[in-house]
Design a protein that fits this description.
The complex is a heterodimer of chains A (98) and B (441). With 98 residues, chain A is mainly β. Chain A has one helix and nine strands; from the N terminus they run βββββββαββ. In chain B, strands 15, 16, 17, 18, 19, 20 and 21 form a seven-stranded mixed sheet that branches. Classes of the chains: A mainly beta (98), B mainly beta (441). The A-B interface holds A 5-11, 42-44, 49, 52-54, 67, 69-70, 72-74, 78-81 and B 285-286, 332, 334-338, 341, 343, 374-381, 412-413, 440-441.
Amino acid sequence: MIIQFCPQLRGDTLSLSRAGDRLIVNGDTIDLSATPDGAELPADAISNDWLVGTVRRIADVLHLTLILPHDADAPESVRFPADIVDPADGPITLPGEA
Amino acid sequence: MTDTTHLGLPFIEDSQAQKHVTHNEALRILDAVIQIVVDDMTRTAPPPSPAEGQRHVIASGATGAWAGHAAAIATWQDGAWVFLAPKTGWRLWSVADTSIFIFDGGAWQALAPLANDVGQLGVNTTATTPNLLSVKSNAALIAAITTADGGSGDARLQISKQAAANTASVFFSDNHSGRAEFGLSGDDHFRLKVSPDGASWQDAFVIDKSTGNVAFHGFSDAAAMRSGLGLIKQASLTDATAERVMTTGAFGLGGNVINLTAVQSANASRPTGFYYCNGCSNMPTAGNGWLFVQQLASDYCIFQFANASDGKRYTGELLNNVWTGWTRQFMRIGSNATGKWTIDPNGWQICTQSINVPAGAFTNSAWGSYRDCGSWALPANFSAIYGAWGQVVDGAVGSRSGYASYIYATFSSVSLYVSSPQNSPDSSTFTINAIVMGLAA
């Protein structure tokens, strides 16, 4: 799983954790296990506003993009975040988090 | 009778022989007792070589030629001492004592100095009780005895009373009707009293004998006077008690601003003034800052905060004890991987971003072609959208100049649509520059 981020200046926060092909976003579970290899799933097909862009499974690796909320004083590492590659199951440490 | 009654002068008898002897005897007595002046009054033995007519009053315990003549006037006449026993009321002048003495029947009593221990004394007037000393004069002078004359050089007039409840004072009158008095009146505090008529009196001021504090008329004591005159200094630089006198630096004016520490809250109600938040809670941003507070009442305040490191301003208000939160008073400009934003102090927000649209085929129609390019997140969230525009730009602008882009913005994303007058136009990747305006979330 490769998680890309689309940083956005906004007031709320994001809490993320992984359980296999399932992603729990602010308590809402997105189950991507049914997405076959090579398939593309438009964000519109998934009822979660944090997910943007197209979800793809390429070479059996899920690629997805999430909005990363931050405030105006957020550091560079949050405003220009790096991808998170193959995070372990459980809570995912987001850019800028200790 | 052979002698006169008082001075014992011998009479001359009718047929007396040597009448000159008796006459001369009488003259000697007269010479001795009329206008008596003696050399001294302390001798108990005669002087060794007296001059003719030399006189002394013999002291008690006399010996020799003077034995048994105490208090008598001894006169050296014709080579012998003649003794005259004084009678009550005789007066003489003692050269050694520079004083007049009067014989009271038993002893000589000095009157010197003349004015000492007199019962009463009137100068240019008659003294009467209770004014045993009365002076009628246009001025009075007490001049110091200088050190050159053996004095101390001081000049002091002392008025001493018997006890605290009595009065020791100086009294000023208008034609003998009192108008002012100062001194110790009825107690031991120094007071100055005045009267419009000599009958009713009031204290103009009282000086406490122990503390030296001065209480002026209209105030019960020194503390009340200071309070009444508004002369009480504030207890601290932030003492906002009514009518206190402010000192330099009060509420951050004139001196240093008031330093607030970590135990204090930046947005707590406090007296109008200038402060510095040093690690306070509830500051609008990380880091310390300068705080200006204006207070209408304890539940109505406005706070203006300037960040110490970058000078950025924030304001907040306490309205009816409800905190409004801090409002930024500066333009915020920033960027992230999504795009750029500008937010003015009133919340007006402009976002710009370049959206790289991946390659994709257009759908042909009778008038040309179109393509739904999907939804794209904005660099900053909005609470209201007032306008959104987009333009296709990339290295192939020339060939795609006829493209029209349409974007539809939600609070957090834009949806892109691109149309072309051609069928099956260039389907390779292109970029859309988008701008969205509205209110920041």
